[in-house]
Amino acid sequence: MGAATTRAHIVEAADQLFYRQGYEHTSFAAIAEAVRISRGNFYYHFKSKDDILAAVIAARLDDRRRMLERWEADEPDPVGRIGRFIEIVVTNRADIQHYGCPVGTLTTELAKLGHPALDDAGDLFTLFREWLRRQFVLLGQEAEADALAMHVLAFSQGVATLAHAFQDEDFIRREVQRMHDWLSAYAASPETAPHAGNEDAAGQTNV
Questions:
Q1: Which residues contact 93 (CB under 8 A, 6 or more apart)?
Q2: Which of 92, 138, 170, 176 has the fewest CB atoms within 10 Å, i.e. is most exposed?
Q3: pLDDT (tens digit, 0 to 9) for every residue of the chain, 207 residues total?
Q4: Which strand (E) or helix (H) includes residue 20?
Q5: Do the Cβ atoms of 117 and 110 come closer than 8 Å?
């Protein structure tokens, strides 16, 4: 196994362990055991757990950028692209019910720790925010594009948090359908559809 391949395996294993166990509760030994390499070989690639964390965040950013690029290639219409983002909580529902959102859980943990990598981890949310904002701009909603992007992000995080808390798949599917209904209504008639931060698709006031 080449050095680049070994490093990639370490990052992949650390990514899964950080997600499932948390960054603080994942040791060097646990990562080395998951990859089945010696401690010496492990230290050749990474000198500290913070170095691994930085590599995990970078890998997640690269992965999500590629995902967004695929959606843009697959979906000619911005409504379809935003819809793909909304579907994330359904597509990843099994992991989300067990472990929560990988982006949200990591940023929350790093914030509690006062970890210097918090801003870097937050770049994942920024990536999604900017991509969603571009889609709403393409829909002709430049003035509200950022607020709408944050509305969709807030929906995603809220559903992920409650899905993890209540282990309710039906809840996930209902909320995703409600968000699709909101998006369709907004795209069809922005002037009459509920706006982000005011009312959601069911007419409930957001807080």
A1: 163, 169, 172
A2: 170
A3: 567 789 999 999 999 999 999 999 999 889 999 999 888 888 899 999 999 999 999 999 999 999 999 999 999 999 999 999 999 999 999 999 999 999 999 999 999 999 999 999 999 999 999 999 999 999 999 999 999 999 999 999 999 999 999 999 999 999 999 999 999 999 988 876 665 545 444 443 332
A4: helix 3-21
A5: yes
Nearest alpha-carbon partner for 194 in 155, 158, 162: 155
Q: How many whole angstroms separate alpha carbon 24 and alpha carbon 193?
A: 44
Contacts 24+ apart (CB under 8 A), 130-134: 131/68, 131/85, 132/82, 132/85
Neighbours of 166 (CB within 10 A): 12
State the amino acid at position 199 in one-letter form.
E
Task: Output the pTM of the full model.
Answer: 0.90
